[in-house]
Amino acid sequence: MNNTSSADRRPEQLAAFGRLLDVLDRLRAECPWDRKQTMQSLRHLTIEETYELSDAILRDDLSDVRKELGDVMLHLVFYAKIAAEKGAFDIADVLNAQCEKLIFRHPHIYGDVTVSSEEDVKRNWEQLKLKEKGNSSVLGGVPVSLPALVKAMRIQEKARGAGFDWERKEQVWEKVQEELHEFGEEFAEAEHSPEHQQRAAAEFGDLLFSLINFARFAGINPEEALEHTNRKFIRRFQYLETAAAQDGHQLADLTLAQMDVYWNQAKALPVDETNPTSEK
């Protein structure tokens, strides 16, 4: 692809989208696998494809991002195709409704509302969502099935959009310290009774929630930060396994001190050398 503007490529983009719809129409009519699919059968595959797209984005692999976007796009038009067969809606209904929603939620672009910052845009967005969906609670739009860490982020962002938030990050850090102390107290007693164990678990949840809150104030995405740490640990541990095997050792036969030698070697190496295998 060259650097031609999106508007200049609009006919080509529309033709490509139409081609995808045509291909799916034929597959749905003639392929036994595609013909038997339902929204329910596609659901877990869509989740998998979304995670694969997420992985490609984290690797900054634009070639894979393009491929994974295609897979996700196929699933989106597939759902619309199934709905059209049921007489519920089709892809045009989906896209037109999305356009109307975007126009409605951007009155500073399509209307006469004035904003002075990104925070104003976010605040307006949440207020318009409440009005649009008729939710009685600001938090009513947070999906129940979201992973807990991501859900905590969304809860805090929505509360902030309603004006319920800390004023300074120092206040949030004090809250982290308070929750850490409370968890420590309950954990010290946790082995003495199931009640203390339950309270320790509850305080640990409070601690995590406050850390996620502080990350938001610090401009850190905690989900991405944790995933980078996961990948770092995997690289270093795999180096440990490989290096130990090259020296004729089984991990089960090594002491923790011996494993720490390899671990420290892994920490000292550049990221792209700690694991010669791809993360794909």
Name of the CATH superfamily of the largest domain: MazG-like
- The tally of domains stands at 4
Briefly note the structural class of the backbone.
mainly alpha
Arithmetic mean of pLDDT: 89
Backbone CA Rg: 25 Å
The fold-level CATH name of the largest domain is: Helix Hairpins
| CATH C-level category of the largest domain | Mainly Alpha
Major β-sheet, in short? Answer: none
User: What is the count of helical runs?
Assistant: 13
Which stretches of 5+ consecutive residues score pLDDT under 50?
273-280
Structure description:
The radius of gyration is 25 Å and the shape is extended. 73% of the residues lie in helices and 0% in strands. The relative contact order is 0.05. The longest helix is centred in the C-terminal third of the chain and has 25 residues, at 222-246. The protein has 4 domains: 10-98, MazG-like (Helix Hairpins, Orthogonal Bundle), CATH 1.10.287; 104-137, no CATH class; 139-222, Helix Hairpins; 224-274, no CATH class. The chain has helices at 10-30, 32-36, 39-58, 62-85, 91-104, 107-110, 118-133, 148-161, 169-189, 194-217, 222-246, 256-268, 271-274. The protein starts with 9 loop residues before the first helix and ends in a 6-residue tail after the last helix. With 280 residues, it is mostly helical.
